[in-house]
Amino acid sequence: MEKILDVKDLQINFDTFAGQVKAIRNVSFHLNKGETLAIVGESGSGKSVTVRSIMGLLANNAHVDNGSIDFKGKDLLKASPRELESIRGNDISMIFQDPMTSLDPTMPIGKQVAEPLLIHGSMSKKKAMARAEEVLELVGITNAKNRMKDYPHQFSGGQRQRIVIAISIVNYPEVLIADEPTTALDVTIQAQIIDLMKELQNKIETSIIFITHDLGVVAGIADRVAVMYAGKIIEYGSVDEIFYNPQHPYTWGLLNSMPTLDTSSDRLYAIPGTPPNLLNPPAGDAFAPRNPYAMEIDYEQMPPFYKVTDTHYAATWLLDPNAPKVEPPAAIKKRQEEYHQLVAEGKIQSSVKGGAKDGE
Amino acid sequence: MANDSQKTPKKLIEVKHLKQYFNAGRPNEVKAIDDISFDIYEGETFGLVGESGSGKSTTGRSIIRLYNPTSGEIKFYGEDISKIKHKDMLKFRREMQMIFQDPYASLNPRMKVKDIIAEGLDIHHLVKNDQERDARVNELLDLVGLSRDHATRYPHEFSGGQRQRIGIARALAVEPKFIIADEPISALDVSIQAQVVNLLRDIQREQNLTYLFIAHDLSMVKYISDRIAVMHNGRLMELSTASEVYDHPLHPYTKSLLSAVPLPDPMYERNRHRKPYDDSIEHDGKERSLKEIVPGHFVLATDEEVSLYQASAEEYNEQ
């Protein structure tokens, strides 16, 4: 599969009064053409910082200390501001979380949607407005023709998010980055926006990076999933592999602490403790202090990525050949049984079972 | 929490024909709550779900009298509190407390944790001296799983989950009977949400508390609630036990809402069929009220619609 975006060994630090926060610690991932990659993690895990670095939108106190972001043969981290400007909003664009604050309240929506076209100088004003209308129609703003001159406050929250999406796709970007695009919305509106994004992906053949903390949303939209914790990716694989055959205890904990509609047990599983302070990141696996399965080595050395299948890797010492066999939580075991069942029935595809150690 | 004891549970809250209009009588009138009635029984968790703008938070705020209801009755242990004057409010506010959604905005940044928690103790004169006050604060910190050293710190030194624990300790300080929790976990991270929900459950069991749990996260509401009411456009659409509402929803709005809940299961998501909801059926001018379709299961309906809903309730039984 063709890689459209390739991030390697990314390291980003923030200078603060308290010291240097190591926000992104050696993150590598890639985005295939036409797929949706979901990056999942809690607040502070580094998912937003990662994608903002792709867009060149990091805060002033952030500096990239290592790594490369390859987009069509060009390293975005070495691109000049002018080169980045021509890529941003054109080849790569972004949908932000809050539709209330990412629109200009004083500008009619038609003009806002046409703005990227005009900035990138690809067409005349008249043509740009016509395209804006077309795209607004495409994202489901009914009667777009007559609403071009309306202002954001005249639209509901769900419609505003549709407008934000229209702005981001008006140039038919090759990569679309969506940073928690549905978190501020109600479930019914959220479902509509997710359906819309899937539909658009087919129509304009874009590749999507979707950031969220909601595993339910991920299950519905992603082809592949990367799980982040404390500035690192700790597990990645196809959506089926992550949800039905997770390997890292943090992924287990996340999946386990969400009640499903048929959870009726007396207590929810809660991951104990809180995420580590990234001013002084721990030496070993950052999840170790909260991990009931942690071994001594988890506190001392960072685990490498172990290969589970050709597409599925997890950074946990539990996958080391010398590690003791552990029993995952009951709910996870149930998922794994379901996975083998589904694979046996041919309902989902499984990659070849891989060997022991990582070989990227 | 499912307290299926045979004796009839006591009604703690009775809401009758409550209306809460903003800008009443003016052109920009908003009918935030439009004639709702329900009871909350002692010891239960009553879940209130709905989308933003449905009136669920307004309902909670009207019950605790942060608003003055436009009309209707709110009874607390049989006493109508919808019209009591400011000076009499102190007494019932000791019995009724609130946990707010945003743990960042709901704690005064300039107060120490112990003063935040003890504010209610001071107002209600529940402690005689500083020693007693500190002892009670320590007790509460233990109860919500914070360390005693935290007492002299300020809110900014805490994470979201810890702040929500402080908010819970503050609510518990005056030993209330009834707690209104307005989206208490929606601002928290997934791994922290479960911690706070478990804490709320443990405390409920220990202190025999009654909760009104307001939320939009339907799977969490189902998990924590005994009974659930679904709210939309200021009205209650459906009310029943948690499992009835989820497994046997009757009103098309409830069905639509449930069909939109994303679940962490890719196979389910691939086969999911959303059921769109057309709210024009609410605007046909017919008089509707909550009708009992099957025992304990209420749906907003006209007299004629009752038999239709009964028929669909029976279909569930046949399955």
Characterize this entry briefly.
With 360 residues, chain A is of the alpha/beta class.
Question: How does this model look, in words?
Answer:
- The complex is a heterodimer of chains A (about 350) and B (about 325).
- Chain A has helices at about 45-55, 80-85, 110-120, 125-140, 145, 155-170, 185-205, 215-220, 240-245, 250-255, 295-300, 330-345; strands spanning about 5-15, 20-30, 35-40, 60-70, 75, 90-95, 175-180, 205-210, 225-230, 230-240, 305, 315.
- With about 350 residues, chain A is an alpha/beta fold.
- Chain A has two domains: about 5-220, Rossmann fold (3-Layer(aba) Sandwich); about 255-345, no CATH class.
- In chain A, the strands form two sheets. Chain A has an eight-stranded mixed beta sheet with strand order 6-7-8-3-9-10-12-11, sandwiched between helices. Chain A has a four-stranded antiparallel beta sheet with strand order 2-1-4-5, covered by helices on one side.
- Chain A is globular, with a radius of gyration of 21 Å.
- Residues about 350-360 of chain A have low confidence and may be disordered.
- With about 325 residues, chain B is an alpha/beta fold.
- Chain B has a single domain (about 10-280), classed as 3-Layer(aba) Sandwich (Rossmann fold), CATH 3.40.50.
- Helices cover about 35% and strands about 25% of the residues of chain B.
- In chain B, the strands form two sheets. Chain B has an eight-stranded mixed beta sheet with strand order 6-7-8-3-9-10-12-11, sandwiched between helices. A four-stranded antiparallel beta sheet of chain B has the order 2-1-4-5, with helices on one face.
- The interface of A and B includes residues 259 and 274 of A.
